[in-house]
Give the backbone structure.
Amino acid sequence: MKKVRLGIIGIGIQGTSYADFIKEGRVKGMEIGAICDIDPTKKEIVSEKYPDVPFYENYIELLESGNVDAIITTVPHYLHPEIGIAALKRNIHALVEKPAGVYTQQVKELNDFAATKPELTFGIMFNQRTNPLYQKVKEIIENGEIGEIRRTNWMITTWWRPQGYYDLSEWRATWGGEGGGVLVNQAPHQLDLLQWICGMPKKVYSNVKYGYQRKIAVEDEVTAMLDYGNGATGVFITCTHDVVGTDRFEILGDKGKIVVDDSKKVTIKRLTQPESEMSATIPWGDVSKIFKGEGISKIYSEEVVEFESVWGAQHIEVLENFAENILEGTPLLAPGSDGINGVRLANAIHLSSWLGKEIEVPFDEDLFLDELNKRVTEEKTSLIKH
């Protein structure tokens, strides 16, 4: 195989982006094998934009056409595991979009099946993992440069979505259509990066607002407190109603601090000695000088690194890495099995708010699904009444 023939299942905004990247020759080792969408009107658009690319209205027909070696699932969240399993069953490599699914049980089913097909490539579109900024942050943490983590804070409110966005289609921002709001639609990358860099919390307590500033059933405002089980804590804040938005990620360690601003600039402050040693050894007279700003340069060094981010480059890198894994065995940047971690974190945040209490991670997955299904049912009943 010289090139991977990719089947794009779902040719909306994201699917079209991937098709264009490949058509323009920007993804090494990959070509478009076929395109699928349940909307028959897309056939004419596809034939104009991508002549000679077969079009299917049924993804099973695409999988069994012999035209594809691999697929990507740019479809509603609930369908990612179902389509991923269907592809792997037919010995077709699978790259699923984020989130890997809506609830952990369905993602587990996908992961378990993928584990029975180790010869196939199973990846997830966590394009932020290719971002050199977050790779650097992860490296600093793993190298112990700021010591043991004491606290994490991430405020990511740059997802402003007006009511018109939610009104685009009936499935959007619904429990039955998307399985949630900002946690499953806009913020999965940050939930993945948070646990990828800092580890999974052991407990979650959240305050979540549903339809707070928008006429929707799902969440548009989230504040979650994280307990890592070793004394370290965290706060994760996100929403879709902040028109000016903030993206600030802080990680405090016992030997320093990392601050990420706007996913573009990283400031690393490395202490000359661990904070606990400073606390035990610095005389109070010297501390008062520090408060006045005297001798502060002797306490820590500061490094500032800024990164340029070209739109689409990260997605292309994931697609290329996926192709390289199939063709050459290059290790995956984002193995598909990792997708369950962000879903588990989002589920825990939802469940905590639904039950009004702290949730241990892992949690009762049957209970979560029961609570989710209650909301799906209530939503259907409400639609019938209206």
User: Anything to note?
Assistant: The longest strand covers residues 219-227. The radius of gyration is 23 Å.
